[in-house]
Amino acid sequence: MKHIIILGDGMADDPIVALDGQTPLQYAVTPGFDFLAKHGVNGTLCTVPGGFSPGSEIANLGVLGYDVNKVYEGRGSLEAASMGVDIADDEVAMRCNLICVENGKIKNHSAGHISTEEASELIEALQKELGSDTVSFHCGVSYRHLLKIRGGRKDVQCTPPHDVPGVDIDGALPKALSENAQPTCDLLVDLIRRSYDILMIHPVNRRRMEIGKAPANMIWPWSLGYRPSMLPLSDLYGIKKGAVISAVDLIKGIGRYAGLDVIEVEGATGLYDTNYEGKAEAAIEALRGDYDLVFLHVEASDEAGHEGDVDLKIRTIEYLDKRIVQPIINAVKDMEEPVAIALLPDHPTPCHLKTHTSNPVPFVIWHAGIEPDSVVFFDEQSACHGAYGYRTVLEFMPLLLNS
C-alpha cells in the first residue's frame, strides 16, 4: 500500500462567536474532508511534545515520525537544506524574517507578505552592509530568510515574530541563556537595530510605502540551531521512495533531511493563491509512479490564521478540500495499488490569537477496505469521538503505515 499525508498547516482553530461558536473547520463546506471522516478512522493528535513551543518545525517533524528531543536543531538549519545552503560545524543558522515595525512595535511578521523579488534586493543590501566573515544572509522566499553566524551559539532565546504582534521590540529582543551565549546575543541585537536604518531608506521600501504597503524595515532572527542529524525515513520506517510537495523552505528542508525528493510545483506560493491544482496533480503523478509516500503540505490556512482573517481561513480550507483532497480521493480510487490517505493540520493557528497553540488536532486515515468508525465530519470536536482516540505524535506514522 502507498501513502499520502495531506497537511493543512494551522488549519485547526478555536470556536468563533461570529461563526455561531463553530470553528472554521466546522463552518466550512468540505465534502472531501467529510468523506474521509465518514469512511475512515478518526482521532486527535498531540503534535507538540511538552517543553517545545508549537512551531511548524516541531509539529511537522513529529508528524513524519521524528523524535524532536533527539533531532531538533532549530528552524533555520532545516530551511537551509531546502535553500541549498550548507551549515558548517562551527556555524549556527536561524530563520531571519523581514518584518514591519511601526512606532517601535512589531506590526506584522511578514512585512505584508513581501514578494520574493523585493525581498531579494533587501537581503542583498543587508549582506553588503552587515555581512562579514562571521555573518551571512541568504535569501529565501517572501519574508522567510536565513542568517548564519560563524562561531555562534544556539542557546539564545529568540521569540518568533508571529508570537508577538503589537509588542514593543525592546521587550522581545534576544536574550542569552548562558554566559557563553552573550556575544552571540549581543551580535543579534546589534544586527536587528542596524537593519532598521538600512532597510527603512531602501528604494524597495520607499516604493512600498508610496503605494500604501507595509515596509520590510527590520530583520527578526529566531529558532537557532546547528546542522541536524536525522536518519532518512527509509531507515526509520522502510519507506523505499518518498516525496515532499510544499511551497515552504522549512517543509522542503525537513523533507531533504528525511530522504524525500522535493517536487517543485510552479505557482506554489505558500498563500491562499497557491497552485492547489498543480500540487494535487503532482501528488497524483507521484503516487501513480514509484513513490511509496507523498507528504503534501499547504501553508495557506496558517497564514490566514496569523492574519486573524476568519473569512480567508474558511476559504483556504474549502480550497484545500475542493482543489486538492477531492481530486486525490477520486484519483486513488482508480489506482492499481491501494493508497491510504491521511488528513490533518500540524497545529492550530486560532484567528483570535494570530499565533500557534499546542492544542491537539484532528486527524483521519482512510483507504479502501478500512473499517470506519462512527465519525461523519472532519473537525476538532468530531474527531474526539474517533476510534483512534487521543494519540501522541510519534504514534501517527505507525498508525498510517500499518492501517
Compose a concise summary of this entry.
With 403 residues, the protein is α/β, with parallel strands linked by helices. Helix content is 35%, strand content 21%. A hairpin with a 2-residue loop joins strand 5 and strand 6 (144-150).
As residue ranges, the low-confidence spans are none
**Rg result:** 21 Å
What is the molecular shape?
Answer: globular
Major sheet: 8 strands, mixed
Strand order of the largest sheet: 11-10-12-1-13-14-2-15
Counted by DSSP, the helix tally is 14
Task: Output the helix-strand order.
Answer: EHHEHHHEEHEEEEHHEHEHEHEHHEEEH
Layout of secondary structure:
Blueprint: E1 2-8, H1 24-27, H2 31-39, E2 41-46, H3 56-63, H4 68-71, H5 75-83, E3 91-102, E4 105-108, H6 116-130, E5 135-141, E6 144-150, E7 156-157, E8 175-176, H7 182-200, H8 203-210, E9 218-225, H9 233-237, E10 242-245, H10 249-257, E11 261-262, H11 276-288, E12 293-298, H12 300-307, H13 310-332, E13 339-344, E14 361-366, E15 389-392, H14 396-401
Helix pairs in contact: 5-10, 6-7, 11-13, 12-13
